[in-house]
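From the methods appendix. Each design record in this collection lists the tokenized structure first, followed by the designed amino acid sequence. Records were kept in a plain field format so they could be parsed without special tools. The example shown here is representative of the layout used throughout.

RECORD:
FOLD TOKENS (122 positions):
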């Protein structure tokens, strides 16, 4: 997945969340992405900064936690793979495996700081 499109979707969710806190500023965004998606944290931060310029989401730290690939095989194997580009059971070499993790995208947390003085004025 291209980081620009990926980050636009994240920013859309962050800005939607921020609507409930008009005086809030986003401080941190935490994401989990699967290893198979090849998401590069530095690229996500770059696009995030670009896409949130002049908004209350600007300046936030974006953290991307990569979730490793985990498979389950009919032979009983449950664990990682040597190469996530080729999903092969390391025990029996079967390609008939079920991917349990490694493809997910999750917006885990949006940390918003609200200025209490500004909130009290409204």
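DESIGN:
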């Amino acid at each position: 997945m291209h980081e620009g499109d990926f980050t636009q979707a994240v920013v859309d969710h962050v800005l939607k969340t921020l609507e409930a806190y008009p005086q809030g500023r986003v401080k941190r965004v935490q994401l989990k992405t699967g290893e198979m998606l090849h998401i590069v944290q530095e690229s996500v931060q770059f696009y995030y900064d670009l896409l949130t310029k002049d908004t209350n989401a600007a300046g936030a730290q974006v953290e991307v936690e990569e979730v490793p690939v985990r498979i389950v095989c009919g032979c009983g194997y449950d664990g990682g793979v040597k190469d996530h580009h080729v999903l092969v059971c390391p025990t029996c070499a079967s390609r008939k495996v079920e991917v349990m993790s490694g493809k997910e995208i999750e917006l885990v947390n949006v940390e918003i700081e609200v200025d209490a003085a500004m909130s009290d004025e409204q």
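APPENDIX NOTE: The chain has a mean pLDDT of 92.
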